[in-house]
Amino acid sequence: MSPMYLDEKLGVDRVAIIGAGPCGLAMAKYLLAEKKFTKIEVFEQRASVGGVWNYTPLNVIDNDFTVPRTHPTKLPDTAVRVNNSETAQFVSPVYEFLETNIPHSLMNYADQGFPSGSSLFPKHAVVKQYLVDYAAELQPYLTLQTQILDVCKSRAESGKSCWELQILDLKSNQTRKEMFDAVVVASGHYNDPYIPDIKGLAEFNETHPGAISHSKFYRRPDQYQDKKVIVVGNSASGIDISAQVGTVCKQPIIVSEKSTPATPVEKRSYVKSVPEIVEVDSKTRSIRFADGDVETDVDAIVFCTGYFYSYPFLKSLSPPVVTDGSCARNLYEHVLYIDDPTLAFLGIPQRVVPFPIAEVQSAWVSRIWADRLPMPPVEDMRKSEEATFLAKGARAMHNMAFPQDADYINRLHDAAVSAKPVQGLDNEGKGKIPPYWGEDKRWARERFPMIKIASRALGDKRHEIRTLKELGFDYEAWKASGSKELEEKLI
Fold this sequence. Notes:
Blueprint: E1 14-18, H1 22-33, E2 39-43, H2 104-107, H3 124-134, E3 142-143, E4 146-155, E5 161-169, E6 174-180, E7 182-185, E8 192-193, H4 201-207, E9 212-214, E10 229-232, H5 236-245, E11 253-256, E12 271-274, E13 277-281, E14 286-289, E15 294-295, E16 300-303, E17 307-308, E18 331-332, E19 336-337, E20 343-345, H6 354-369, H7 378-392, H8 404-417, H9 439-456, H10 475-481, H11 484-490
Parallel strand pairs: 1-2, 1-7, 2-3, 7-20, 9-16, 10-11, 10-16, 11-12
Antiparallel strand pairs: 4-5, 5-6, 8-17, 13-14, 14-15, 18-19
Helix pairs in contact: 1-6, 6-8
């Protein structure tokens, strides 16, 4: 593929978006706001918008799930049909009692708040409805129950270079091909579970079927009633799942952490923290940890160890974006495929607030594809991507823990609003304006681990809290009080 340079127009007219979750929906809105593209189509394998926020009680394991699981899948997502239903379902990492770990006042889209009365940390059903409402005006552009099997570069009859999509209609089981000038990959990265290769783990799984699982397949704590359980991982899902399972399992619940959590975690009397697992013995159901300690008679291990970057439909892409699944390579600003920037990826960054990130990425890409915003020379893009990889390494390459995420949001915002104005677009020709995080947003973002701890400490009363101020986090009062130095010691 020949890379595009600063002075070249990309000639984008028809755009395909893969995924109707938070990222894909944002992208569709920003593309429409450009009033330039003649075709915008959003493909979604589920029967409804919302992506992973489509909760299903299905306790079904993916077709190619293995223990351990150290390589990304090469297969499409497993479609599940219950009682021979025509509608295919897909297992989501959303579990029954999941609530957001981000305050809704920080995670919402810039032009749409959560409904008044929403709990500060909404339940998953509230988020799903929020996305359904956000997508109301996008219905003409949605193609649901449709799976993308392959995306490859081809040539149209006119001789123009295009992207050819092989598309499976999950209702009719018929495939077809369509051509687009540009493709947005908005399929997320919370789908392809990773389980490390630990000595004896495969044998343990064979000897005790179902004893080892991944957070993707967790639904309710009931299945761990009176069992001795180890949860591996102490990020958001590990903290939440151990809190739920810890109420019903044999106490203490054992939480294995490879490293000390980067954010504050509340002290929990029912939790025993241990280092990483180094060996598993299936005969005695014993687990040995890095410090030499051993736990015996273990009934279950839940791995909250994250997911691969995985795009099976891009198997012919060269150079590849995904190799071992630990990161996504050859992307400028974690978004544009450097060798052909008519291919874009949304939602790659981790440890971020996803909705506003999706918006600024969408705004930036839309303006580039509308030929309103130039890109740097290809060599500058390569150097930028390589520098990030060398500085952070593969597994942390997309980690944008605060303040990196706030700086990224504002950088892409500034780039987007600097685009050449066009008469007829909103905001005096600037187009749809993406979010910008001022001091108040940055203040809340920096504190939301503490905010979540304060909320969880309220028990069921947390559902009555609607605002940060009600929880005791008042930005204006903080700013006026001059108590910055005291609070910084708490963070």
